[in-house]
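Loading example: each entry is read as two labelled lines plus one structure line.
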Amino acid sequence: MTPRSNTRPNTRTDQTRALNPKLYSLFFTTDHRIIGIQYLILALVSVVIGTLLSLLMRIHLVWLDLPLPLHGPILPEDYLALVTIHGTIMLFFVLTTAPQAGFGNLILPAQIGARSMAFPTLNAASFWLTAAALLILLGSTFVPGGAAISGWTAYPPLSAIPSAGPGQALGMDLWLISIALFAIASTASSINTLTTIIRNRCDGMTWERLPLTVWGWFTAALLSIIAFSVLLAAILLLLCDRHAGTSFFLPTGDLVNGVLHHGGNGSPLLWLHLFWFFGHPEVYIAILPGMGLTSMLLANFSHRRVFAYRTMIATTLLIGLLGILLWGHHMFVAGLNPFVSSAFSISTMAIALPAAAKVLSWLATTWRSRPSYKTPMLFALGFVSLFITGGLTGPILAQPILDEYLHNTFFVIAHFHLIMAMAGIFGLYAATYYWFPLITATCTRPGRPMSESLGRLHFWTTLVGAYAVFLPMHLTGLAGEPRHYAQLTGIPGPGGSLSPTGALLAHTISLNHFITYAAIFLAAAQLPFLLNLIRSLRKGEPSFDNPWHATTLEWHPALNPYPPSSVSDTPEISVYCSPCHYQSTQAGFTFLPQWIPSPVDQVEIKEATSAKPE
Amino acid sequence: VICSCLTNVWSDQAEILRPWLLPADGSAHGPALDHHLILNLWIALALLALAHLILLIGLIARRNTEPIHLWRIEYLPLAALALLFGALTLKAERLWAATRYTGASLTALQVEVTGVQFAWYFRYPGPDATFGNTHPSLVAPGEGNPLGLDSTDPHSADDSIASELVLPANREVDLRLNAQDVIHGFSIPEMRLKQNAVPGQTIHLHFTPTIPGTYAILCTQLCGLGHYRMNATLRVIPPDQFATWLAAKQKAAQ
């Protein structure tokens, strides 16, 4: 599937490679498009693994003793390893990697009229570091003791002391090394993204003319640099606690499983602060590119301008700024001073306003527009719906008094899966369907679009599945179901018989059965997508130059078929207006792409840009 | 027969409805919390319906050629939301302040809660109203000293340790939360309580149970492979029964 953009050896290293230079150039390339596709393949592999892990968790919760082929029944520590690896893979290797690094490489340079990323070699190094991180993470499952069991948040002392549980020895070390590598790669990749946006914009691409997707990538990259560097520091401190006898996160006299800690007096809360200082911006890193893309797609398919474009730029930056000021809302029950909780509660409530402004803009952009319902548009609308549904429970969880009941229940699971995981994935699907002709474009022929009918099937089943899985989780959470519980039935109580805990959890069993069936349905609903992906790589008509009547630069006719990065005769690209220049007429609409000089008759423009390639 | 059938259906229905409802609420601060939570849920549901209605109507309605650009569309809904969220924040902060900004009253019952992989221990200070010293090097669960009570400390002689939390109804209790090994989450859903127990830290948590009964105590912070089975029982009993229970407990301890 990888486009052959570097067929002829064009660098010195390629010429010196005797062994299959073509394959070598495909693998160890510095071409940002290929690196973008490599990131997307990595994310696709990760999302398949992460989904299968979540299915195992769902199945185990309702059919406790069902043996796994080649493994046997899932033990409590296996369940926690599933939780840990599922969360880690999905958050880091899917939701951070695909939108920010994948589409960021594939589309971002074209969208600002740049030939390449600012630091191509650093770019390639970032990808290979990320790949190594993924391999180490997956490899940690096979070491003695298995994978880490302390969740993606890895709270010490559970994560600091090998005797705290199976998987907390070598498995935990590998987890930490994997995430440390990932943090280095993300920081480097974000520096690359920021530099590219700041330095490599083409003529006429002023800050105000930047598409909102670029603003999303820009803000997410800023957050990445701040957040991942803190995470890296925290991981190094934790590794020191584990192996160098330090006590950053370990209090004196901590007694874990018979092992007494004699060292200095540290605090586990320090890790919580450092981790969530990273962890909260991280969820915005995952969702900001999707928010930008949604704004652009809604305008594109509604043939409207983005409602309140400058406000959208401002809210993107404001969400980024507020995003680093509210990590404490993950710590309402952690043992902070209650006044601190009040402060974080207010900063968290405040972020609801820029987020609401985004939703208002989306609603206003589509309002009475009679959009064309292509698959990317459907997924963008799905993004809006899931963002609203998941977002509305945010202010509830932001109130410490309510978090006192809801913290670490399935209500929280429902909240962040809807707004981050499902909305994030819908953003990725919208991006994939929208940009597929560019993903598959090569330097000899334009790319192909994906099948619309399979796409529609995929959209509707996924939307229904997403709601069917995550809406009922609000209810089981309200009924008291805590997260990270390896089983909900047969929990032994101190009295021997059914404990009050068992009785409390038993009420959620019937809904949990339903959720598991819905999860299997949701996973099965992704098969049309995979089928569509494989089919569209090989079959189908090549797309037009600008199949969606887009106004942004990545659809410039000179870029599809894609010119190899080494070719210097690519026509100079300039930008003449802001994106989403759509105008309604009696007959329909006209549009003005960013690369067309303005004072031209707009009907002619339409003809010129939608002409079929030879 | 019809009658019993009806009661059957009635109880089935109650059973079906159980996961749709909050569990019982037996604490003094609970009803206000529930009220605020349910208010929040209704507001979220109403906003959810409203936003989707606007989205759908906007998609279905006839095309309007000129997109509307009015400041009141841009800012009025935002101002309304700001007011709404501001009011909710204010109310939540007041509830939070009432339960957490100040400590327990001086007459509150003192109980120490310790989380250990994978059990909760409850210690009552005895007639001297002072907890004896503990030391991690003295911890020996096999010898009946799971908390490492220092027997050379005179205050420790009348301390009694229980594996269930027994409290008198309608008296405020001041819990001091500790953890021996890793972070645990002390949670009593039916008392609307949740607070982590952190190693190296003593965290105070106070509340007043009102309705006698048996309630679940859970661990709600991932603490290892036995996390799911780390639970205990809270028994809230009338004050006179509590006095008898405590006396018997202390007699057994000495």
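The first strand of chain B starts at residue 109 and ends at 116.
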